[in-house]
């Protein structure tokens, strides 16, 4: 690691969470499931003002409805941040109180019967008046990618005993099975945009934790034959993301997913950062396409995002991962100058990587 690259969070940047979190903390009357089953509404769906009851909801792409139910998503984000931060504090300080706190957070969310999340997303991104859940709702759990990495780090640091690690790995094995075999999971895997990318990021991270080699190999093969060649244009852009009403943010979001997938799946024998499609395209083409617009957002040649335009760019992990993989100084220098993603649920919910130390 280059000494001038600081990957750690400073204490003042991390919110002072001081409790354990579970889905049962915020019951949802709209959910057809139990209090332990995750529920959310689709971000861009709004009441139909021409109907007295507002149903069925109508879509306004890129415009998040603040009245939709996102309580479970926020709880998951808090749990993921907290478990990761305690893990890293233990690694830095060797103070076992942080290891115990990390376990407490994880035990409460994944193991304890009264509070554990059921390992499925049958009711994610539901649309009132239309459906109780959708395949694209599986993107809601991308916060658990860093949780899986934190659990692996705790295991490596001998902060979890065999029973504790087995319980956590068992939950992720159950979730990965549902994630990769259910109707919703298969639909999300086949999405030809950032949803397909983030299905694979999650599947790869969960397979890494559970030592599911077939899933890991499938994700490697899909990156080479489906994701990169199917989504990247000749100039390194992602046309399906540019076609959205938030083209800048979605382009960064998808590029971060691609880079994270390369980071998780790369081995000494198979370096995905250097893989090229039959057209000669690699992840580096995507980084080079976005680089000038990360330097100067106002040079972006496409329409501005209709929401959160002023929140971008934060510290995009794709610059860090690519900078190290390609030994490219300009990527790392730019990454150093950009601000962190804020600890703010409205803007941070679209950021995959918050704790960069977990990735190295």
Compact summary:
The chain has 360 residues and is mostly helical. It has helices at residues 71-93, 96-110, 144-156, 162-181, 183-189, 194-210, 213-231, 239-242, 247-265, 283-295, 317-326, 329-337, 345-348, and strands at residues 39-41, 45-46, 58-59, 123-126. The protein has a single domain, classed as Glycosyltransferase (Alpha/alpha barrel).
Task: List its traits.
mainly alpha; two-stranded antiparallel ribbon
- Average residue-wise pLDDT: 93
The CATH level-2 architecture is identified as Alpha/alpha barrel
Radius of gyration: 20 Å
- Return the structural class: mainly alpha
Strands of the largest sheet, in order across it? 1-4
CATH class: Mainly Alpha
Q: Would you count the extended β strands for me?
A: 4
CATH homology superfamily: Chondroitin AC/alginate lyase
Total domains: 1
The CATH topology annotation reads as Glycosyltransferase
- Count of alpha/pi helices: 13
Low-pLDDT parts are: none
Strand content: under 5%
Question: What does it look like?
Answer:
48% of the residues lie in helices and 3% in strands. The chain has 360 residues and is mainly α. The chain has a single domain, classed as Chondroitin AC/alginate lyase (Glycosyltransferase). Helix 4 crosses helix 5 (183-189). The protein has helices at residues 71-93, 96-110, 144-156, 162-181, 183-189, 194-210, 213-231, 239-242, 247-265, 283-295, 317-326, 329-337, 345-348; strands at residues 39-41, 45-46, 58-59, 123-126. It has 13 helices and four strands.
